[in-house]
Design goal:
By secondary structure, the protein is α+β, with helices and mostly antiparallel strands. The chain contains 3 helices and 4 strands.
């Protein structure tokens, strides 16, 4: 729930619009090492300008360091800016519900 709160606050989105999938125990190597690594994929409609992603990256990385004890060089974040007509929810697209 802490991570959901962090993402919702950083993206300025309601918590109800934030989905978090945690996959602990995955076998991931990064840089040839099996030390813990965190891979974060952020998909959002808006809130992903260059300045936004820098701010989000700082917050996510700090969270991973402080709460998960994962060093910052082992935190990898990818951002995907989604078009409202490409996201379906509640039986329609986000674009259609905005009409």
């Amino acid at each position: 729930e802490q991570f959901t709160d962090l993402i919702a606050e950083s993206l300025s989105k309601p918590k109800g619009r934030v989905a978090v999938e945690l996959l602990p125990g995955q076998r991931i190597t990064h840089g040839g090492s099996r030390n813990p690594v965190v891979i974060v994929k952020v998909e959002s409609i808006g809130a992903l300008s260059s300045d936004d992603t820098i701010r989000h990256t700082q917050k996510i990385t700090n969270f991973c360091q402080e709460v998960l004890k994962v060093p910052k060089e082992k935190v990898i974040i990818s951002y995907y800016d989604l078009a409202p007509d490409k996201v379906g929810v509640n039986g329609s697209t986000v674009a259609a519900t905005r009409l």
